[in-house]
Amino acid sequence: MNPFSFYLVTDTHYFEPSLGASGKAFEEYMQREQYFMAESSDIVRAAFSKIAEDESVDTVIIPGDLSKNGEIESHKSFVKELYKLRDSGKKIFVITAGHDYGEKSRAFVGDERIEVEGTPFGILREMYADFGYSQALAVDESTLSYIAEIAPKVRMLAINCDSEGNPKGEVDDRLGEWIKGRLDEAKKDGCSVFAICHYPLIPSVPVFDLVGDAKLRNWRKTASLLADNGVEFIMTGHMHIQSINEYVSERGNKIIDICTSCLGGSPAKYRKISVDGDKLSVESFDTPDFGCDTKGMSLQEHFDNQFRLSIRNRILGALSGGKGVGAFFKKIGKKILSDITVGGLGRLLWIKVDKPIKKKKFMDFACDLGIAVFKGDMPYGKGTPEGDAIARVLKRFRFVIKKIEPKLSKNGVSVDLTDMLLNTISNNKGFSDNNAVLSLNGKQR
Ligand SMILES: [Fe+2]
Ligand SMILES: [Fe+2]
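Above: the input record for the complex with fe (ii) ion. Below: its predicted structure, written as tokens.
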């Protein structure tokens, strides 16, 4: 590929603060939210001004979930920020996603959660006309997917899988044909192509293959379509996770998926991507200081703390409610999980737990594990107290796992749950999820 570089920011979830983001209902809502909502406009401004400072890169790409939940006022304000960034000399390309349209827009005023005006899918093209659509060589009108030449002889295929013209989180046959047509044209014109899509193309961590919308639903088919037609890498978001993965199609063509975290929630990163010939360089940066009170913590700890709160409350929420015997067991489970240490749980399950984590509260252990997985470069491999404890649990429950695995297998792809889980908590890929130099040698055009 000809040399070029760009910044990748995703899942900005911009919320216009004057709509209302305070009060009791808001505080309750934030108990379970991963990212900062009231501060999202400050976060976007801080990140955009940092990016504007770098005169060596003239392109910024944002693959969806631009607004919090499709509030039209959030879009209007976000577009103003995009124009400011453009005025600093950047070309900006976006696609929209599921959080950018529909009737689910809410704000928080006083003790109330109130409905606010949403955004119809049909007006997104006009709203973001200057950020991709007017530069496009072709637009698929029903999904608002497009292709644009963003550097000499380099085209970006923007695949929109959250639209009213295609099943959510999927590339259907019609969209697949439209993509194939654009890739054939690029080949004829001697252009290289990379792609963006809101949904991860490849499950970010192996266990996400079991989670419906954690990746494109027909990801193997779509990955093969792209790889076999010359697309060498794709930039994605949606799961708010830092991951880099490679997939090789049956015909032997490689595609790399670089999934980036939410800008305003732990791990709170954005990326700089540089391509030169066969070399793809990925650099990750922390979301910059946006002037908030971090209560004595570092900014990264402040982000992690919000994520920790949401994981904890989601676990406890899953153990609440219900009726009769179910509610009784949930209550006991909640009590045990809130108080027990990892060592205590180990004793209950007859599993050896290594000293460094014995006294750690199980809930803290679970939160740390969740946060680590989303940061990428998962550190809990063989030989670590955490990795070994989880491996022992999986071994202890092998008889249950063996019964579950056939039920999880789909489309003739068998599932090794133990392997999936162990590779989810440790990075055995041979490259980092955050800063990596990869080879783009999978091209067979
Ligand atoms: Fe998102
Ligand atoms: Fe999303």
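Notes for the reader.
The pocket of fe (ii) ion (ligand 1) is lined by residues 11, 13, 65, 99, 238, 240, 262 (CB under 6 Å).
The mean pLDDT is 94.
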